[in-house]
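# step 3/5: fold
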Amino acid sequence: MFYASHVAVFGCKGCRKCISICGESAIFYSGGRVQIDIQKCNVCGQCVSHCPNNALLLMD
């Protein structure tokens, strides 16, 4: 079984769909892409499954 410790952003196209799905308000838009506040993120994976560009990845 895989347990992730954080979500990483690779190749964000700036659609911002992940921001609205995040229940922890851990995702914000800055510098032309989304960024994740690791202090707020609970690594639930909802943003990963809703990203149409596969730009978010669960990492260990």
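# step 4/5: annotate
The mean pLDDT is 92.
# step 5/5: archive (pending)
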